[in-house]
Every structure is written in C-alpha cells, then in structure tokens.
Amino acid sequence: MKSLLLGSLFAAFVVAPTLCAQTAPVAEAKPLYPDSTQPVDVRVEDLLKRLTPEEKDSLLHASGTFATAAIPRLGIPERWMSDGPNGVREEIQHNGWNAAGRTDDFSTAFPSGICLAATWSPDVAFAQGQAIGEEARVRGKDIMLGPAVNIQRIPLNGRSFEYYGEDPWLAGRIAVGFIQGEQSRDVASCVKHFAANNQETFRTDSPLTGPAINVNMDEQAFAVIFLAVRAGVGFRAKGGGGRVGKLLRKCTWQFAGGVHIAE
User: Fold this and answer.
1) Cβ(144)–Cβ(190) under 8 Å?
2) pLDDT at residue 248, rounded to an integer
3) What is the CATH number of domain 78-87+104-263?
4) What is the 3-state secondary structure (H, E, C) of 134-167?
5) Which residues lie below 8 Å from residue 50, measured CB to CB, with a gap of 6+?
6) Integer angstrom CA distances of residue 8 from 12, 17, 26
7) d(CA 97, CA 83)
8) Taking Cα atoms as reference points, which of 153, 155, 195 lies closest to residue 172?
9) Quick one: DSSP state of residue 256?
10) Residue in 99, 133, 227 with CA at minimum distance from that of residue 172
11) What is the distance, to the nearest Å, from the Cα of residue 202 to the centroid of all Cα atoms in its chain?
12) Residues 174-205: pLDDT tens digits?
C-alpha cells in the first residue's frame, strides 16, 4: 500500500506542473514536526512523510559508537548517547571503544542499580535520574542508555549489579522514578537489557563461538518474571505514581525460546 501511495505521489509531482501550468502556485503546508505544541505522534507522522528511504535507514543504526546520523535538510541534528545506569561514562572514540583521552569528561559515579533498589524509594530513584540527566546535558548527551531493568536470576551474571533485584514490581517502580527524573532534564531514557539477559558468556553472536545463547523458559515464567517489569514501567505505573514519557528500548542480543529478544 505504501509503495502504491509513494508511486502516486511521485506521479502527481511529475504531472502536476504540466496540468496546472495556468493555476496559481499553492504554498507548501507548514511542517508540523518542529512544532513542540503538537502531539508527539502527529510530529512523528509528519516527519516520516518527509524522510527519504535512505534517511530513514540512516536513523535505524548508529553513525558512530554512541551517535546517530544527522539530517541537516530537515534540521535533525546528530544525537549523542552514553552509558548508562550509574552515570555518564568517559568519552570514547567516535568509531571505537577506547578512551578518547579527554580531560573534561568527568562525571559522578552514582550507586549501582541494586543499591538504588535497596532504598525501596521511587523518590530517591527520581533524584538519581535527575542528577544523571543534568550531568548528561552538561556533557552534550541526548540519550542515556539506561536504566537496566532485567531481573536478576543468576548471581554470576556480570551485569547483575546494574539491575534492580529479583522482584518485577520493585524493578518497575524504581525504573519509573529514575526515568521520570532523567526525562525532567530533557534527556531520553533508553531502557535496556530488557529480558532474559542472564549471563555474559555467549551473550552476543561471535565468529569464534557462534550464535548467541538461547534462553529456554516456559511462557508463564517469562511473562510473570521478565515481562512484568515492562508492565510496571509502561502501564501499571499509571495507577501508582504516574507513568513515564516516551521510551526507547535497547534489546538484549540473545534469544529466548528460539526467538530473538528484539522480536
């Protein structure tokens, strides 16, 4: 349907000058996407109509280790990201993982996720998210890759310290406070390690070790343990302390029940 629509629009643009040579020019509709008074969904749909396929593709992947591509003709700047849940990390190379060697990239090392969850306080989480958002803005970051909301299942998991414990409801409530604090400083939150990220070994595809691990669990466990965090962050929070704004989600790399987590 979209291809037919695009073809029709193309034909209209090509033929219209010939058929309407004697008519007065019609002013192009004012773009809605730069208008902050419009609803987000309206702005997104308006912008999508103006993007070329190549430009859309450029926004689906990074232009560097922690950056997305700019589209100058539409006023879309390059967007800068940083890890993460415990504070803004040091600057690294644009196309690598080594330190950039700067001396102006200081930031606060905040308590880890499990320590934050131990407060049982969304208000404390809000304060930490707000502080990280402030430092991110000073460092020129638009998106922070955090919080990490995966449920702790295996003590030896290398990322367990970033997570909010074993209880999905607590993890959701702490995440809501953190995200709201970060968003209050005009910084986007990218919720990551969303589900079943239980070990570092074979977590990603590798030419040496083969495909990423496939986590096998029944649907009930997956729903009531891992996906319950999603309900806490995005839906149930509405009735228990306010819901968060628009979220980005960074999926984990492995599989669950033979299906990639991103699906």
Assistant:
1) yes
2) 57
3) 3.20.20.300
4) HHHHHCCCCEEECCECCCCCCCCCCCHHHCCCCC
5) 31, 33, 74
6) 6, 15, 19
7) 12
8) 195
9) E
10) 227
11) 23
12) 999 999 999 999 999 988 887 778 777 777 77
What is the pairing mode between strands 79-83 and 67-68?
A: antiparallel
Residue corresponding to tokens 């149930």: 236
pTM as predicted: 0.77
Amino acid identity of residue 118, one-letter, is A
Burial class (CB in 10 A: 0-12, 13-18, 19+), 88: buried
Alpha helices in the chain (DSSP H): 2-19, 40-50, 53-58, 113-117, 122-138, 168-183, 219-221, 227-234
Cis, peptide link before residue 257, omega less than 30° from 0: no
Q: Which residue type is seen at 192? A: K
**Residue 47 near residue 71, CB atoms below 8 Å:** no
User: Cα separation of 181 and 186, whole Å?
Assistant: 9
pLDDT score of 37 more than 90: yes
Residue 90: is it exposed, middle or buried by C-beta count within 10 angstroms (0-12/13-18/19+)? middle
Name the residue ranges covered by the structural domains of the chain. Answer: 78-87+104-263
pLDDT in tens, 102-112: 998 989 999 99
Q: Which two structure tokens, joined as six digits, stand for 161?
A: 């310290």
> What is d(CA 43, CA 35) in angstroms, rounded to the nearest whole number?
7
Q: Kindly report the backbone phi and psi dihedral angles of residue 250, in degrees, each rounded to the nearest multiple of 5, phi listed first.
A: -105, 110
